[in-house]
Amino acid sequence: MPQADAAATSEPANASASSTTPKKAASAPEKKYKCQYCNRAFSRSEHRSRHERSHTKERPFKCQKCRSTFVRRDLLLRHDRTVHAKDGGVPLQSEGRKKSGTSAATKATPSTAAPSKPSISIDPGTLEQIEASSDGMLDLETAAMLMTDFQHKAAAAAAVNGHLHNGDGSIPDYSPDRSSLLESSDYLTGPNVLPHMPWDSFMPQGPSEPKAHSMSSISSQDNLSQPPFVHMGSIQPHQSQLPPIMERQNSLGSSLPPTFPSLADNFPVSGTPTPNALSPFPSMTGPVSPVNYRKSPGPAQPLSLPKAPQLNNDDERAIIANQLGGDIALPSLPSINLYLTTYFNLFHHHLPFLHPVTFHPESCQPALLLAIFSIGALYNFEQEQAYMLHHGSKKLVNQFLQNKDNFDSRKCPLWTMQSTLLNMVFESWSGGSQGLEWACSIKSLLANMVAGNKYELKLRIDARAGAPPTHEQWVTEEGCRRTYYAVYIFFGMLTLTYNHTPAISFNEFDSLPLPSSESLWIIEPTDEDSWQDIFAASPTITVREAYDSLFQGDAARYSAFATRVMINALFLEVWNLRRSFESLQDVVLEWKIRIALETWERSLDLCEPEIIVVPLSTPHKSHPLIFNSMAVYRNTRAFLEVDLKNVQEALRYHNSYEIAAAMTLARDNVKRTKEMIKVIEQGYECMEIVAMQGINWVTKTSSTNWSIEHPLCGLDLITILSLWLYRIEHDDQEATDEELAMYMKVRGLFDDDAVDANGSRLSSTVARVWGTMLDGVVVWGISKTMGESFKLHSQALIGYVDELSLDPVTGMQVSDHALMGMETAY
């Protein structure tokens, strides 16, 4: 024992494992294999080899299904289980899984149902092997992260395949006070429904709380004397209320406070894939309103969960097949119902122009039905089937238009407009330049359809001579208006993303009422009298009235869909301001637009509350349309200061190298001014949203739960953020206190290992993390193109710095400290 104690004190750097089990220090094996880079000692050569890969960056384990490489085999196995789970084929297995599985099965007994936890003794050699194989990440943390991912996948599956219903199949009524909602054990039906993780309880409740430390963050505190890669004076570190983003990516369990109860203790009896204020479960407390984070009052009505339309039997499928003929293959009945479910549960809420209550697939026009199926197949990751259905829909629409000898937009049915819109959405975001060019070629056709149909709608409304509409009439008229606004929003996103000239003017809709709330849209009144009472009590505001209110600084009350329409109008005002030479000289107009944007944000406090449960998981406790609107709002604020026209035009042709080059060359457009700090704050909010959710979870679920607006709006914001960080790191001009504070806020989202992997450049780290998130799990191909572009942009930032760091006379590498000229700490 004295000899063992002496040996333990002679190597304090390597005593971390043995210190945790001091009683077994005598049995510690001899550590004769030393790392040639840091002199760390190991008892076995393979442990040393694993450790040395952290220095050499060697990645010997290659995925046979893609081009990814990994440092350890367990990371390869995790990659195969998560990324390639839907690809089919035999999954990889660890070497000892079969043996351990067999031995575990033989030891299992009925008496092990609820035993007390036995104490586990691990010898120092085993601890050392775990530490060497995981580079400081304990398997317990990995298991916690995997369990969390599994919970979210199960919740997403419940959103697609399961519906809340009573025993008779109807939707249960939810009381706003949420009392006694989970007393029934069969409240959620389905064989594989798991409870949802109460995410909000994982996060600190305010900035005053200390940051929950993980293993990486604890170790980073010992290195606070290391200077950051930025021109700055002495500065205290920013006290972020969030653990670093890369720590949350790799370790959920370690980021929990010490007093946090076990994960199993926090699972509710049942769960829902909607962790927001609409979740009618005891674990999700707070007001019922979907915008309760904006102080909106909750509704008094019971909550409801609309059910996606379905085909009931093969006879209804046969009706559709007969309409299609033999040219287009119709999917099987289960596939059709799956596509309908994914469309109405995952896509419809972001662009709700269809009426789910009266939508009957068997009587729907085949062109519109195939367009819906195609997007549903995309969200189910069936790309080949999605493209086949999409081309079938385009073919049917073309046949209808070509067979009309004298095309008249006033007589064009609504379904042609809706089918064309969905087909254009499919092509524009699918990730191919040819599809985008096709969509642009028919923009004028769709705009003409909107104008003609809107005129016919006006004639029908005028014919009523002021009489209120029946419910059937209102549904038809509201469906037309919602389709117009959906086209308007889509054209606005084409302008935001590709710098395309808007095809529809704001004046086209100025006299129309804004879209109603989603609750009123899907309501089913018992009789006509009750509908008239409901309609009379519903607020009505036209587009022009809301527009004038915003520019006058008066907050307006309208629905979530109307919120999305109005921020689209404000973005197009900014676009016109930046693209018109006369507007560039109009300081008063720019000031008015800034007032309107501030008023729009204040109007969120007055947004009409909803009573429907949306089966989507979004970070904000709001309807997804509010969440999407905030993404466009951040992009609009940034557009007032920075114009990335060249990046947007490069994106039209979907060449990642050209897009990345345009990003890097845009660094001169990003100025270091006080106004730019506000823009950087918007980019920081984008990264913070990802940080609060965890990058692993966002990578796997955002493509299906979040709208395409978020990656598209993030293109400008994260490009600006990375270029601003680059200038802070490398400009000769010293950073101001405001700039340093903002830099440290962004730096607080990442641990040291994440930044060190990018040459200690925070600018490169931000671009790489964002790119990795975008091209992880892909629904819309444009997000993969942008992800690859950001990763190339990240490499370009480092490459450009490497060129600058060469001495122009000797050609030798200049040290980082000499290049920065600073000796300061965080």
UniProtKB/TrEMBL annotation:
Chief location category: nucleus
Keywords linked to the UniProt accession: Metal-binding, Nucleus, Repeat, Zinc, Zinc-finger
SMART domains (UniProt xref): ZnF_C2H2 (SM00355)
Biased composition (Polar residues): 214-226
GO molecular function, one term: zinc ion binding
One cellular component term from this protein's GO annotations in UniProt: chromatin
Subcellular location: Nucleus
PROSITE patterns hit by this protein: ZINC_FINGER_C2H2_1, ZINC_FINGER_C2H2_2
C2H2-type domain residues: 33-60, 61-89
InterPro entries in alphabetical order: VerF-like, XnlR_reg_dom, Znf_C2H2_sf, Znf_C2H2_type
Keyword Zinc: yes
Protein name, UniProt field: C2H2-type domain-containing protein
Organism whose genome encodes this protein: Vermiconidia calcicola
